[in-house]
Amino acid sequence: MQKLVRLLSHLSQPQTQPLPSSMVQVHSRGGNFALQDGDSLYISSPNYPANYDSNANVLWVITMPEDCSLVLSVLSFFTENSYDQLTVSSESGADQSVMLIDRFTSHLAPFNRTYAPSTLMRIQFRTDRSVVYQGFEAELRASCSAETTTASQTTGLTTQDYNDLTSEVPWTIGVNVDSTGGPIALGEGQDYFIASSSFPSNYPSNATILWQVTTSDRCAIHITFMAFSTEPIYDYLVVGSQDVTPKNMVHRWTGEEIPAPLYLNSNQVWFLFISDSETEEQGFVAKLQAMCSNSTASIEEVRLVDGDVPQEGRLEVLYQGQWGTVCEDLWERTNAEVVCRMLGYEGADLEYSTTDLWWLIKGSGPILMDNVRCQGNESSLDECSHLGLGVHNCDHSKDVGVTCRTGSEANPSIDNSAIIRLVNGNRPSEGRVEVFRGRSWGTVCDDYWGIEDANVACKMLGYERAELAYREAKFGEGDGAILLDDVSCTGREPSLFACYHSDFADCSHAEDAGVKCLETSGRDLSLA
């Protein structure tokens, strides 16, 4: 454990399921409602399906007979992640203490939830003062049958005066919240709460708490945070899958922002909370859920589209017969490595998004994956953690792209002459370097341009290596875009695009790079 602690010390519109054709009344401004067995109430965020208001605070209070459960069916849900949220709570006891049961935020696929029997339930929708989205639409139904009243014995946190989840209102911890750690066997459909020590009081210094969660092998684990406040950098919560080792770490949270929900496609998950010897904060509370299915929902295929060559482009995945994109949140090289191996390549050279590169064309249709986090050794994106297929809080401006490493045998049909050329030289083996991206040719800036970079350019054109690397527009100034800047190759890369570079040039065409490729061996290499 101590070794681990030391080693662990970074908008599309949602698909909407319409209300029944009978066009029932939808209540978007809150109120008090009494439901009998089988009664339904339809609610939505203000203005739905248009965007909700900023600074909204809407409360629906539901009363039901004893031994009745509330069934929540969310038809559509899209809010600003973490800041705009829908909460479900129940009141009990003479002091009307409130038990917080659920918190929903971000972009969620339609779902159903049955809560433990209660005579009074509170549904509250709150938004902040900035970003607004479409919001939500849901059905509330009272179910008083014996079969459904015991379907979900959900427990939670209590507070004497529940007004705002993110306020300074003191919390009272419930008996069903685990703040000591240890093994947890999470049953199908069960909710389980974990928290830092002493929550809602500040956690102690030098804390180390480990939770190890297991569930059925056909289940995955979903994490939703109710509260989060730690000393940035020094105090943190780590989550991993399978064995408790640093290489199996999936994510690390620190600071005071409530993290987005996370879906871990694993039935063995661990959480490790660590604090240092100084500042203490309130800590965190998180709800763990076992998401189970009799059928395995999985990615059927991946592809790269709208690239200039087959081994690069915007990433799309096939799910239930429909292609969709992947959001850049948490996207790293390890994810790209998994994608490229799925496509039969040796590995990844680059990972990027439409936020980074102007030439990467935005996708359309559904966004199928978000918050993807791979360790790099998985055989499919299915094995990586993510929010859940079809669940995201992105738009297509954050679509990811990948360039795969071909190697000498991975894809021998690639013709690099389609993406690189030499212009204005006296012979075919020399000239101004131009590359093809985003449907047009452009030049390369000479910042950091040297013989190793020239070697890569010449090898792309079929030459053995470079004889000279030229700067300052030796072969005349080009026109159009400057597509690469700050190129820095080792000389072993298969492409200039695989070298470190910047896609935002601060150059003029007076700094266009050039090369002279070696047609015969045995000459010295130099920079001109």
UniProtKB/TrEMBL annotation:
Keywords: Disulfide bond, Glycoprotein, Receptor, Repeat, Signal. CDD domains: CUB (cd00041). SUPFAM superfamilies: Spermadhesin, CUB domain, SRCR-like. Disulfide bonds join C374-C384, C489-C499. Residues 29-143, 180-291 form the CUB domain. Residues 302-405, 420-518 form the SRCR domain. Gene3D superfamilies: Spermadhesin, CUB domain, SRCR-like domain. GO terms for cellular component: membrane. PANTHER family: DELETED IN MALIGNANT BRAIN TUMORS 1 PROTEIN-RELATED, SRCR DOMAIN-CONTAINING PROTEIN. This is Scavenger receptor cysteine-rich protein type 5.
